[in-house]
Structures are given as C-alpha cells and as structure tokens.
Amino acid sequence: MATSIDYIEYVCEQIKEVGDVRYKKMFGEYMVYVNDKPVIIVCDNTPFVKQLDCIEELMKNADKGYPYNGAKEHYILDIDNADFCRQIISTMEKVIQVPKPRK
Known about the structure:
Elements: H1 5-15, E1 21-26, E2 29-34, E3 37-43, E4 46-49, E5 64-65, E6 74-76, H2 82-95
Antiparallel strand pairs: 1-2, 2-3, 3-4, 4-6, 5-6
C-alpha cells in the first residue's frame, strides 16, 4: 500500500512549526524535508527516521522497522504525538546536512 496524499500532508502538518517543511514523491513514497534537509521517509503510511545518535535516548522505546527492502533499520515515528515529533525533528535537523546538488 503506497502512502496517501492525505497522510503525507498530515505528517507535514504535525511538524510544520520546526521550519520550512515540504515533501517530495520518490519511488512511489515520500521524503519529508525540513529546511531542505531530509528528515522523514514515509512508506506505506508509516513515518521513519534514521537511527541517529542525537535521538537515540529520546527514541529508546520506539518501534523500529525497514521503510523498504534493502534499507537500514529506522525508528518509526509516532506522528500522532506532535510535540514529541517536533522535538525529534528539531534535534535531527541540527545534525543533518543539506544534500549536495547532483550534477
């Protein structure tokens, strides 16, 4: 089941206070960017974030899963808890780099 447009817009609405939020369709699923940094991958209506050291303690009780075949294990973000999501995304946004443009 692919991610619905309603769900991806809900994800963006939940974290809109952390910066400039946008999404891009990629391979039938979505990447959510904050301030041009890729922070959430949404696959099958499930938001995933990378297992970064900066959020390890905050996400210690989070479920984990694989967004797609061949991917590394990610944390599953409880997007319904908006305050917690904004805390996670704000923390991640400080350490994630803006991707370099492809030539």
